[in-house]
């Protein structure tokens, strides 16, 4: 039994099919990345998983239960956490206070000092969240997700606006969360350097469907993927500016 099964999901807005008969199986404890051009349906897919949108057809099965049609609140309580592109934090509260509020939603005990150390904000724990650097705000939101005790986290462009060093540290953080805490992770990202750091299965989305799945090296050199991004097949491997979320 798959941990997360997306079965023939479809969602249209007027005459536009944002997600078209999309299927994907994620194993428990896996780390996967999803890339694709703007408008290919990635964010809509996340909205379908988290209950922000209801599919026209298909189903979302999480840990063996059909969660299609449940509210975002109900799905979050089942253990699905989502990070948006723009950090959703309480900027007027301290870093520690942000984590305390999130931890109240967790039915199991959690060590906030250990979490602060994990997200590299131990020294900033008493600092107002709004005063953090951009990359630190992204780490805080990841910490807020972890404080709630999810078993699946969906990350929407977690390195947006980060420096190269922050991007590498974020990749290390996500890999550690996946490896050490056995949390299943699905990432949307456009930064190819970040995807390469993750070194995980990669799925390319086009026109609401999965075009290709494979390792980073397989996808990077795939002629059909090159055709999608360049309009023609060529020998040059995909570079960081070639794929956009």
Please characterize this protein's 3D structure.
There is one protein chain. The strands form two sheets. The chain has a six-stranded mixed beta sheet, sandwiched between helices. Strands 2-1-4-5 form a four-stranded antiparallel beta sheet, covered by helices on one side. The chain contains nine helices and ten strands. It has 245 residues and is α/β, with parallel strands linked by helices. Strand 4 (57-62) and strand 5 form a beta hairpin. Helix 3 packs parallel to helix 5 (134-147) and helix 6 runs parallel beside helix 7 (192-198). It has a domain at 80-150. It starts with a strand and ends in a 15-residue tail after the last helix.
Give a short synopsis of this structure.
The chain is of the alpha/beta class. It has helices at 42-50, 72-77, 95-103, 112-118, 134-147, 164-181, 192-198, 216-220, 223-230, and strands at 4-13, 16-26, 31-35, 57-62, 65-66, 80-83, 152-156, 184-188, 202-206, 209-214. The protein has a domain at 80-150.
Name the features:
single chain; 245 residues; alpha/beta; six-stranded mixed β-sheet; four-stranded antiparallel β-sheet; 34% helix; disordered C terminus
Mean of all residue-level pLDDT scores? 89
The residue ranges in which pLDDT falls below 50 over 5 or more consecutive positions are: 232-245
Number of helices: 9
The helicity comes to 25-40%
Q: Count the strands?
A: 10
How far is the first residue's CA from the last residue's CA?
Answer: 30 Å
- Which sequence of SSEs, written as H and E, runs from N to C? EEEHEEHEHHHEHEHEEHH
State which percent range the strand residues make up. 15-25%
Radius of gyration: 18 Å
